[in-house]
Each structure stands twice: as structure tokens, then as C-alpha cells.
Amino acid sequence: MCLFCYKIIFTLINKILTYSPEETQEAGFDFASTINLSDVIGFTGELGSGKTQFIKGICKYFQVKDVVNSPTFLIVNEYKGSLNNKDITINHFDLYRLKSESELLSIGFDNYISENSICLIEWPDLAIQHLGIELKSVNFDYRNKENERIIYT
Ligand SMILES: Nc1ncnc2c1ncn2[C@@H]1O[C@H](COP(=O)(O)OP(=O)(O)O)[C@@H](O)[C@H]1O
Ligand SMILES: [Mg+2]
């Protein structure tokens, strides 16, 4: 990639530092105002890097009343939320345990993507492979400071 393109992309990426789970939730809450209905968003980063905390903040923005937790064992959680006084569905995936695209299809992945819902996907690699498009994504990182998380939106 040319240096000019690299510089444009670099200035478009927003970098946020947080120092507690609550701050990461607030970052998710703020980010949620940029989400549109029918968006499919991937969340990447190691275990414990803050993906689920950030998604909790997104869900708070959409007035979700259900408990938001990583759906690691269920693969997908469906929450009822609201946007502009309209009921919406938020589908929260964690694809960490899935091993193949056929496993993704067997959970009915395609049925979750709709005009009236938002899909938030932790460990999105199989979804990206299946959809064949780049997803809007949020990336999480942590270095040596215990509670510091670096979030790229
Ligand atoms: N700045 C921070 N942001 C988010 N989580 C933090 C932060 N500092 C410490 N933590 C802890 O890190 C863990 C993040 O967990 P979680 O959001 O479930 O990660 P992931 O979904 O990426 O596996 C939680 O145990 C949380 O208490
Ligand atoms: Mg998680």
C-alpha cells in the first residue's frame, strides 16, 4: 500500500484507551450512535481484551434489558432493543468455538442477518469467510498495563 493511502487509513481509524470495564462499556455506548439497522460488525482481539464489555455498552445504547454476556456456549444470543422508538433485534455472536463454515450454517447464521436487526460478532473470521465481504470492525488490544485496553474503531 502506498504511504499516502496508509496515512489516510491511519487518520480514519479512531484509537481509544480505557482503564476499566466501565470505561470500555462507555466507549461501546458512544460507538453505538454510528451503528445503522442491518449492520453486521466484527469484534476482534484476544480473550479478555474487552469485546463483550464494549458490546454491553452498545446494548445499553439500544436500551436492551436482557443480560448481555459472551454467548460462548450458545454461539448466539438474541436481545430485544429499541432504536427511534422502534423495536429491533440485536444478535450477539461468539464464533470462537465454531470450526467450519458448515457449523456456521448449521446454527442458521444467514437467518439472523436482516433489515430489522444488528449483528455483533465476536471472533468473526468464519462470518467474513462466509459472507465474502469485509465487515465494519472494532479491534481490541492489550499490552502490559493490567487494566489498559486499546480499542480501534
Ligand atoms: N479497560 C478494560 N476494559 C474492558 N475490560 C477490562 C478492562 N480492564 C479490565 N478488564 C477485564 O477484562 C475482561 C474483559 O472481558 P470481556 O469483555 O469478556 O473480553 P472478551 O469478550 O474480549 O473475551 C473482564 O474480566 C474485565 O473485568
Ligand atoms: Mg467475549
What percentage of the residues does DSSP assign to strands (E)? 25-35%
Described by its quaternary structure, the protein is: single chain
Largest sheet: 7 strands, mixed
- Mean of all residue-level pLDDT scores: 93
Number of strands: 7
Q: What gyration radius follows from the Cα positions, in whole Å?
A: 15 Å
Ranges where pLDDT stays below 50 over 5 or more residues in a row are none
Query: What fraction, in percent, of the residue positions are helical?
Result: 25-40%
Query: What is the N-to-C order of secondary-structure elements (H for helix, E for strand)?
Result: HEHEHEEHHEHEE
Distance between the termini: 20 Å
**Small molecules bound:** adenosine-5'-diphosphate, magnesium ion
CATH class: Alpha Beta
Strand order of the largest sheet: 1-7-6-2-5-4-3
Contiguous helical run count: 6
Domain count: 1
